[in-house]
């Protein structure tokens, strides 16, 4: 009996992804590898990997995409007080591996993680190329929160964040938005919407609208490769 379920593409050595409208409930393709070249091709095509530790590599292009337009960032009064107190020292690209491993540990203790050793190795490779970055919140000399993602052109593709201290990941995210805004970036790609992202101002847009926005900012200027510096104008002055 037919279920009318489309056939999901099986990737081979070719780095080209199928047209995005072939995705079934967001799933576009299966297989391939996590080489730097394939990951770069994926993000430039509007695709990202997301799969469990026991699963094959799954490639996604959701029908609706979560993005954070930089001008729509929401900072609550209490969070602004945290920033003004300078509770956290924000750094970039000084502890990338620690950030990605902490993101995996947080999820492993909760709903399970997709940040496997395979994922860690792949994004460490992109970090060595100057394309994957971490934004870190430090408190009393200890890494207590942060996020990581990939940047090409003037797009930042967020992957995951963690917080071991209240508001630490928010502080890192807010800093990233300010840093990106000063450098003419497009919206932050948040991939899949959730209540936490919505509270910060993230919205969902149709896949086609996302692709238009992404392509506008992908190659407008040369990619700013790492290591990045955390220097921006103080948040309280904006």
Helix content: 25-40%
Output the helix-strand order.
EEHEEEHEHHEEEHEHEH
Measured distance between first and last alpha carbons: 61 Å
Number of strand segments: 11
Major sheet attributes:
7 strands, mixed
CATH homologous superfamily (4th level) name of the largest domain? Leucyl/phenylalanyl-tRNA-protein transferase, C-terminal domain
How much of the sequence lies in strands comes to 15-25%
Spans where pLDDT lies below 50 across 5 or more residues: 234-238
Report strand order across the widest sheet: 6-7-8-9-10-5-11
CATH topology of the largest domain: the name is Aminopeptidase
Work out the radius of gyration.
Answer: 18 Å
Give the overall pLDDT as a whole number.
91
* CATH architecture heading of the largest domain: 3-Layer(aba) Sandwich
CATH class of the largest domain: Alpha Beta
Shape: globular
Structural class: alpha+beta
Task: Describe the model.
The chain is of the alpha+beta class and 238 residues long. The protein folds into two domains: 9-61, Leucyl/phenylalanyl-tRNA-protein transferase, N-terminal domain (Alpha-Beta Plaits, 2-Layer Sandwich); 66-231, Leucyl/phenylalanyl-tRNA-protein transferase, C-terminal domain (Aminopeptidase), CATH 3.40.630.70. 31% of the residues lie in helices and 24% in strands. The protein contains seven helices and eleven strands. It has helices at residues 36-44, 77-84, 96-108, 117-128, 168-182, 195-199, 207-218, and strands at residues 9-11, 27-31, 48-49, 58-60, 64-68, 89-92, 132-139, 142-152, 155-163, 188-191, 203-206. The chain has a seven-stranded mixed β-sheet, with helices on both faces. Strands 1-2-4-3 form a four-stranded mixed β-sheet, with helices on one face. The radius of gyration is 18 Å and the shape is globular. The model is unreliable at 234-238 (pLDDT under 50).
């Amino acid at each position: 009996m037919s279920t009318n379920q489309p056939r999901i593409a099986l990737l081979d050595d070719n780095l080209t992804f199928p047209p995005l409208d072939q995705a079934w409930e967001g799933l576009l393709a299966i297989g391939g590898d996590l080489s730097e070249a394939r990951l770069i091709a994926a993000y430039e095509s509007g695709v990202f990997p997301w799969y469990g530790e026991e699963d094959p590599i799954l490639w996604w292009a959701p029908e609706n995409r979560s993005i954070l337009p930089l001008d729509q960032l929401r900072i609550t009064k209490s969070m602004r007080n945290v920033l003004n107190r300078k509770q956290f020292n924000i750094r970039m690209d000084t502890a990338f591996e620690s950030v990605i491993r902490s993101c995996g540990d947080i999820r492993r203790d909760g709903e399970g993680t997709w940040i496997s050793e395979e994922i860690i190795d792949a994004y460490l490779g992109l970090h060595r190329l100057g394309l994957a970055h971490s934004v870190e919140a430090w408190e009393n000399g200890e890494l207590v929160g942060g996020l990581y993602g990939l940047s090409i052109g003037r797009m930042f593709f967020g992957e995951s964040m963690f917080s071991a201290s209240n508001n630490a990941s928010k502080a890192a995210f807010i800093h990233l938005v300010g840093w990106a805004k000063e450098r003419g970036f497009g919206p932050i790609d948040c991939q899949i919407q959730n209540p936490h992202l919505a509270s910060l101002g993230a919205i969902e847009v149709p896949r086609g609208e996302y692709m238009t926005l992404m392509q506008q900012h992908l190659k407008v200027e040369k990619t700013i490769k790492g290591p990045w510096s955390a220097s921006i104008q103080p948040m309280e002055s904006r």
